[in-house]
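Hi R.,

Here's the chain you asked about this morning:
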Amino acid sequence: MAESGLPPRRPYAFTRFYVMTVTTGPLRIASMRAHVAHFPSHRRAFLFADIETLRAHDGDLLALPWLDGEGSTVRLGASPGVQAIGTDTKGRFGSVERA
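And here is the predicted structure, written out as tokens:
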């Protein structure tokens, strides 16, 4: 055990994991969000977008407005002062803006 009382971290032991899914359209996204609802503590780990929105943003995954499992709009990418997705306020792992 580490001094913090927690077991030591192994290399590559992820503490956060996000599933980004691009699908056919809003109805499919709604269906997938309904399934994610069974995992209340992990709903924000699932990000959804449809193919038309991806095309409208020229395939730019960082500019794309994602919908998380709770229904919030999420934008990935670097913006000063925006909290990084799943991290602290130091902006690690990109950043997210939740609407």
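One quick note: Residues 19-98 form one domain.

Cheers,
M.
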